[in-house]
Design goal:
The protein has 179 residues and is mostly beta strands. It is 11% helix and 44% strand. The protein has a five-stranded mixed β-sheet with strand order 2-12-11-6-7, with no helix packed on it. Strands 3-4-10-9 form a four-stranded antiparallel β-sheet. A three-stranded antiparallel β-sheet has the order 1-5-8.
Length: 179
């Protein structure tokens, strides 16, 4: 109870805390529990695959991870971050025999969990009511600066250049940050 570290520590066998950093075997995934129905997901064809940054912006190598180029969110500024918005549309279908409400949870993740990156982070959620066999589309509005960035050890928020992944259920959708 006195150990409040979030990140896992393999040297001591500490599994970490919260869905973002826990590397043990959970009983239920974060946000999911018992249900009388099963649901499937699919990213719609119109979901963005790339976010383009201005060529005049200079990414910097991080001291702890020299192979990753990142943009400091504070340096990007309010106007640039305001332009880096995308939408993700997810189709959800109730395959079970019962109607009910279902949480559609949208996560983002990076290609690796090295250098303190979380395994995933929740970037959006919506609850939908679906009748048995019914399908629906759920749209999420995302800001790259807010939803695809991460916090460094020194407290700076950075946006990594390269691949990022959106996850809903077992489905993944790749988004590339390109300059």
């Amino acid at each position: 109870m006195t150990d409040m570290r979030m990140r896992a520590d393999p040297a001591t066998g500490y599994p970490g805390r919260t869905y973002r950093f826990y590397n043990g075997k959970p009983v239920y995934q974060f946000g999911y529990g018992l249900s009388y129905s099963s649901h499937s997901y699919e990213f719609a064809a119109g979901t963005a695959t790339s976010i383009y940054l201005n060529n005049s912006l200079s990414p910097q190598a991080q001291p702890t991870d020299p192979n990753t180029l990142s943009y400091d969110i504070a340096s990007l500024g309010f106007n640039t971050c305001g332009e880096l918005k995308i939408s993700a549309t997810v189709g959800v279908k109730n395959h079970g025999p019962m109607a009910g409400r279902h949480p559609v949870l949208l996560f983002s993740r990076w290609p690796s969990t090295e250098h303190g990156r979380p395994a995933k982070q929740l970037v959006g959620f919506q609850s939908v009511h679906l009748e048995a066999g019914e399908s629906s589309k759920v749209e999420f509005s995302l800001s790259a600066c807010e939803h695809l960035s991460r916090v460094m050890d020194d407290g700076r928020r950075v946006l990594d250049k390269g691949s990022h992944f959106l996850i809903v259920g077992d489905e993944e959708h790749e988004i590339s940050i390109i300059a």
